C-alpha cells in the first residue's frame, strides 16, 4: 500500500542497514509516522507486547524476523529454542505468532548452526511474501461480495453506496500488506464501487479511530468513525449492508476470536439480518482447537488502557488523559469469541466458506484428520 505516493510494507529489512527489522510505530499513528529499527529479539518482543506492532498476521512475520535477529547473536540450538519461546509468549491469543515461530523452528532445527542466519532471513521473507499473496487473494474473493451488494442496490433503484461496518483494524498495517477485512474494501474502491465504511472506534486502544481511519483516509476511501456502541443502532435503521472484520484465531469449527466487542456486533448483525463476514488467511486457523469459548486463551491487558485514553492535545503533542475516578478498578479483556453460528461466512485466500468444520474442510481438505470435536 502507499503513504504519500510511496509504496510500503508493514515490515522490511535491507542489507544496507545490517538486516535490522523496520516497522512503523503503531502507537504513534495517526499523528506521527515513526519508523522503528529493531536489532535484537528483545526489542522485537517489546514492540509486540507494547503493540508498537500489532495485527495477527504482522506480529507473526515480525516475530519470525526477531528469531533471525536472535540467531545473529547466537545460532546454537539452546539459544535458538530459548529465544523462540520468548518471542512466542509475547501475546497469547493470536495464533499466527506461534505458527510463524513453529514454522521457523521446523526449518532451522534441520539447518546447521553456521547456516541458520541466512536460512532464517529466507524463511521470514517467505512468510512475508506468502502473507501478501494470501491477503491479496482474500481481497479478490471479498470484492465479489461487495459487488453483489452494489448490484442488488442498483437493481432496486438505490443510488446509495455500499455501507460496510468494520471493527478494530484489519488493514494493511495489521498485516504485511493489503490487510484482511480491508483488502476487499480497497479493491472495490479501486474498481470504482461506491462504498462507505463505518469505522468502530474500538475502545480501549482505539485502533479503528486511529489506524483504520488513517488507512482509509490515506487511500481515499469514504468513512465515518462511530462509537463502539453505535453499530446496532445503525443496523436497526438499515444503514449497514454488511460487516467485515478480521480475526486473531479461528477454530476448526468456525468460532472466531477477535478484538473485544466483535461478539456484540455479530449479535446485532444476526438480529438485523446483516451479513457478518470474517476475513482471514489460513495461518489464522487453529486446527487444534474446536471450542473457541472454552479453549482460546483471552489476553488480559493493562487496566491503564481502560482508565486512560491517549490522544493529541491542543499543542499537537500526544498525551494520556485519565477518564475514571481515582481508585477505580478496570478490567481489560482484549478479545472475545464469536460463535460460528453468528458468522455468515469465513473469507479466506481460497474463497468463502461456511463457519463450520465442514465449510473449512471443503476449502482445506488436506486438514481432514477425522476429528469431530
Automatic annotation (TrEMBL):
Q: Where does substrate bind?
A: 54-56, 91, 207, 258-259
- Keywords tagged on the record: Amino-acid biosynthesis, Isomerase, Methionine biosynthesis
Per the record, where is site Transition state stabilizer? 168
Name of one Pfam family that matches: IF-2B
Q: Pathway it acts in?
A: Amino-acid biosynthesis; L-methionine biosynthesis via salvage pathway; L-methionine from S-methyl-5-thio-alpha-D-ribose 1-phosphate: step 1/6
EC number(s) given by UniProt: 5.3.1.23
Q: Which reaction does it catalyse?
A: 5-(methylsulfanyl)-alpha-D-ribose 1-phosphate = 5-(methylsulfanyl)-D-ribulose 1-phosphate
What positions does UniProt annotate as the active site of this protein?
Answer: 248 (proton donor)
Gene3D superfamilies documented for this protein: translation initiation factor eif-2b, domain 1, Translation initiation factor eif-2b, domain 2
Superkingdom: Bacteria
Catalytic EC class: isomerase
Q: Which GO terms describe its molecular function?
A: S-methyl-5-thioribose-1-phosphate isomerase activity
Question: What's the stated role of this polypeptide?
Answer: Catalyzes the interconversion of methylthioribose-1-phosphate (MTR-1-P) into methylthioribulose-1-phosphate (MTRu-1-P).
Q: Which family does it belong to?
A: Belongs to the EIF-2B alpha/beta/delta subunits family. MtnA subfamily.
Q: What is this protein called?
A: Methylthioribose-1-phosphate isomerase
Q: Which organism is it from?
A: Endosaccharibacter trunci
Tell me what gene encodes this: mtnA
Amino acid at each position: 500500500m502507499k503513504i504519500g505516493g510511496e509504496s510500503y510494507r508493514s515490515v522490511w529489512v535491507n542489507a544496507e542497514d545490517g538486516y535490522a527489522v523496520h516497522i512503523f510505530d503503531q502507537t504513534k499513528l495517526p499523528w506521527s509516522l515513526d519508523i522503528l529499527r529493531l536489532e535484537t529479539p528483545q526489542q522485537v518482543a517489546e514492540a509486540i507486547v507494547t503493540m508498537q506492532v500489532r495485527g495477527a498476521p504482522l506480529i507473526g512475520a515480525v516475530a519470525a524476523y526477531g528469531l533471525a535477529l536472535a540467531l545473529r547473536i547466537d545460532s546454537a540450538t539452546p539459544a535458538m529454542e530459548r529465544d523462540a519461546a520468548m518471542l512466542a509468549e509475547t501475546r497469547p491469543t493470536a495464533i499466527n505468532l506461534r505458527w510463524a515461530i513453529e514454522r521457523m523452528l521446523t526449518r532451522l532445527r534441520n539447518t546447521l548452526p553456521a547456516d541458520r542466519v541466512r536460512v532464517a532471513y529466507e524463511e521470514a521473507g517467505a512468510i512475508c511474501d506468502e502473507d501478501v499473496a494470501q491477503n491479496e487473494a482474500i481481497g479478490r474473493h471479498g470484492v465479489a461480495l461487495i459487488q453483489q451488494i452494489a448490484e442488488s442496490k442498483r437493481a432496486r433503484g438505490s443510488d446509495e453506496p455500499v455501507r460496510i461496518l468494520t471493527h478494530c483494524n484489519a488493514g494493511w498495517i495489521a498485516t504485511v500488506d493489503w490487510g484482511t477485512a480491508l483488502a476487499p474494501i480497497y479493491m472495490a474502491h479501486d474498481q470504482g464501487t461506491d462504498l462507505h465504511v463505518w469505522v468502530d472506534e474500538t475502545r480501549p486502544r482505539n485502533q479503528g479511530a486511529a489506524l483504520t481511519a488513517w488507512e482509509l483516509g490515506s487511500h481515499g476511501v469514504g468513512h465515518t468513525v462511530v462509537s463502539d456502541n453505535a453499530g446496532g443502532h445503525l443496523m436497526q435503521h438499515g444503514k449497514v449492508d454488511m460487516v467485515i472484520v478480521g480475526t486473531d484465531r479461528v477454530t476448526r469449527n468456525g468460532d472466531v476470536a477477535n478484538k473485544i466487542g466483535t461478539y456484540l456486533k455479530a449479535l446485532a448483525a444476526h438480529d438485523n439480518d446483516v451479513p457478518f463476514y470474517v476475513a482471514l488467511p489460513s495461518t489464522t486457523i487453529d486446527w487444534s482447537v474446536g471450542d473457541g469459548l472454552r479453549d482460546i486463551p483471552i489476553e488480559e491487558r493493562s487496566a491503564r488502557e481502560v482508565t486512560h485514553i491517549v490522544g493529541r492535545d491542543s499543542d499537537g503533542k500526544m498525551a494520556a488523559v485519565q477518564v475514571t475516578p481515582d481508585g477505580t478498578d478496570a478490567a481489560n479483556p482484549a478479545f472475545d469469541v464469536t460463535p460460528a453460528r453468528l458468522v455468515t461466512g469465513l473469507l479466506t485466500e481460497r474463497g468463502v466458506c461456511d463457519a463450520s468444520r465442514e465449510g473449512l474442510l471443503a476449502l482445506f481438505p488436506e486438514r481432514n484428520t477425522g476429528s469431530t470435536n
